[in-house]
Specification:
The complex is a heterodimer. By secondary structure, chain A is an all-beta fold. Chain A has strands spanning 3-7, 10-14, 19-26, 33-38, 44-50, 56-58, 64-68, 73-78, 87-97, 100-105, 109-114. Chain B is an all-beta fold. Chain B contains no helices and eleven strands. Chain B has strands at 3-7, 10-13, 19-26, 32-38, 44-52, 55-58, 65-70, 73-78, 87-94, 101-102, 106-110. In chain B, strands 2, 4, 5, 6, 9, 10 and 11 form a seven-stranded mixed β-sheet that branches. Chain B starts with a strand and ends with a strand. The chains are: A mainly beta, B mainly beta.
């Protein structure tokens, strides 16, 4: 089965600083990869997805991620953190199941943005 | 446009009581539907998925069951809740491929 590992359960950055959230994947086939954001007591919102087109994927809210096959990584970045970016972030990989596809998620990284 | 609704938003239930969580999707037909559970420190776990009315697949053995009585309705149930059933339950849908659209979730606390 395809899986992802998120490095660091908590990340703290200063407002205006670079955001880097790390995700490594394990997949026997070319993966489809995703990043989601979750605000407290809310559902998941898709930030961006990689589906084997351009390796640098741009998403919403100024986030982007780069697919690096040689490093099996799909790290999420944002040049300048805003206070509103504080949330839980999940990396996920698409996995084939009996009748279709599901997402296998990492355990999440909580992003704290300090003034 | 398509929307997904879950209710209730929060629920506190005693151990041994029944459970029914509902999810509906609007603006589409014949979606694939999913139930995920998010437990503290354990990430998101796929519980059930359905590709059509009456078609339910379970990913993990557990105290819960799912049903799809109508095309755009997906229900998560339990006859007797356990403490370990506490968590944040998310419904999701897709046409093809993995689920990309999630509901706002139900926070279940079993006491």
């Amino acid at each position: 089965a395809q899986s992802v590992t998120q490095l660091g359960s908590h990340v703290s950055v200063s407002e205006g600083a670079l955001v880097l959230l790390r995700c490594n994947y394990s997949s026997s086939v070319p993966p489809y990869l995703f990043w989601y954001v979750q605000y407290p007591n809310q559902g998941l919102q898709l930030l961006l997805k990689y589906t084997s087109a351009a390796t640098l994927v741009k998403g919403i809210n100024g986030f982007e991620a780069e697919f690096k096959k040689s490093k099996t990584s799909f790290h999420l970045t944002k040049p300048s953190a805003h206070m509103s970016d504080a949330a839980e972030y999940f990396c996920a990989v698409s996995d084939k199941i009996d009748s279709g596809y599901a997402l296998n998620f990492g355990k999440g990284t909580s992003l704290l943005v300090t003034p | 446009s398509q929307t997904i609704h879950q209710w209730p938003a929060t629920l506190v239930q005693p151990v041994g009581s029944p459970l029914s969580l509902e999810c509906t999707v609007e603006g589409t037909s014949n979606p694939n539907l999913y139930w995920y559970r998010q437990a503290a420190g354990r990430g998101l776990q796929l519980l059930f998925y359905s590709v059509g009315i009456g078609q339910i697949s379970s990913e993990v053995p557990q105290n819960l069951s799912a049903s799809r009585p109508q095309d755009r309705q997906f229900i998560l149930s339990s006859k007797k809740l356990l403490l370990s059933d506490s968590g944040f339950y998310l419904c999701a849908w897709s046409f093809e491929g993995p689920p990309l659209h999630f509901g706002n979730g139900t926070r279940l606390t079993v006491t």
